[in-house]
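Fold this: Penicillin-binding protein 2
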Amino acid sequence: MSKELVFKRIIELGLILILLRLFYLQVYNKDFYADLSERNYLKSMVLPAPRGIIYDRNNNILAENKIVYSLYLIPPYKFEKSKISKLSEIVGVKIEDIQKIYEKISPYMPAYLLKRKLTPKEIILLEANRDSLPSFTINMEFDRSYPYGTIAAHVLGYMGEVSKEELESEEADYSLGEKSGKYGLEASYEKVLRGKKGFRGVSLYASKDKRIITAQKDPIPGKSIVTSIDIELQRVAEEALGEEKGVIIVSNPWTGEILALVSHPSFDPNKFIEGFTKKEWEDLIKNPDNPLNNRAISSLYPPGSIFKLIVALSALENKKVSPDDRFFCPGEYWMGKYIFKCWKKGGHGRLDFIDGIAQSCNVVFFNVGLRVGDRVIEDYARRFFLDSKTGIDLPGELRGFIPSREWKGNKLKEPWYPGDTLNLSIGQGYVLVTPIEIHAMMSIIATEGMLYKPHLVSKIIGVDGSEEIVKPELIGKVNISPSSWSVLKKGMRKVVDEGTGLATRIPGVNISGKTGTAENPHGESHAWFSCFFPSENPQYVVTVFVEHGKSGGGRAAPIAKKVIEYIVKGGIKN
């Protein structure tokens, strides 16, 4: 074959390959490349929606949005050194860093965030030098802000970047880098607060460096919520608890409205927006006291003597005890070869059942518990929601644990011993509760049988100003005879007037309550005090729990007194 013929064949083969390539691009992949071409000049930018505001019951703002301005680079992404140098000079970002951005930026990205929180001076300089800078836009955005800092942090919660699961949810429609509620009310009411983002469509003509806004859909702001929290009462309660690890809950038992809910230690939700240093983050998540845990709803503790109220009611209702029954407390109780002690060394001597409640005498309740029996006590504990979630509108609520013969046989492979009944009778042994469950129990006693669902949001306000009122929801009713309520409340009144809760006594204010000091195998005993007032017509329930507080009467009751004093002096406005 001559050289001329070989050359001719090569030319023919090249033409065939070009035709095949053109067929592949224009016929076989016609739709793909048409779409690609469309997207090359039609871009859209997300316009974030302002998140709903969170108010306290007196319209004080607890969570709001701070407007910030952000600088975005937009197509066409041309790296022109003179323009980049000018941009670097204005916003204080190194040229090398901007260059790295340009190297990884995709031409299909509608915008790339270069800097958040521009200063007024930077904004003015950017606009004044727009013609000598690369293509950019300045977007108004919203940062969440919590003006009270750590106060009520466990109620409000915090925000964080959306998770992979949220991004993959078509219904949720989140974008990369967007923030969502991760904890507290921010998480519970995410769908209400979030709103709906908008977008701005832009046509780009790469050859002419020209942009035209072709469409815009404005974002829809989120709805706002009004909580039942009184932020000043919340502040007083947090100051009363001080540096103790523990919980304070204050509510209206007739509506379930939570007026204050404290869990300490706490955290500053603003840091989840501003950002943590590495040390700050490690200090937070490695803190053995776990500041991110809401102890009010997500921690379990033995109830100690506060559980005696359940034993008392079960005994009164089943005619196993009367207010006139008398007991003798020598300071200890013998069960076979085992000794069970009263908290008071030397004993209480002779006392009747009501004084047994007032003095929280263990020996009285050992006797009463054995008369009633563990199965009845277990039944009454369940009736008073001590193994149930209350349904409070916060994420992460746990349910308590009431032991039974069946549980012990199956789990521990042991029979139920009489000693187990003695421990159960004073709230020790295997029984565990959350502080919100004890608060619910006290609310049932205050209302003589009714439990309204504890809640923190009382009203939802729409963008148009419409209001959705959250009505009280009756979630439980316990039938107890009036005579049993009367005996129990007489004993609880005496707890404060002359018993273990004397430290709560306030002249002129009738308070009914119960202390609890719960032995703890991991350290010092826990301290409880829960009460309602005024005794004749209860309007408030106050529960205080101090982790490792040693004494309910000595540590928890004085804290409750500070909160009650604030309320009776007119601290709550409505």
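The longest helix spans residues 3-28. Confidence is low (pLDDT under 50) at residues 36-41.
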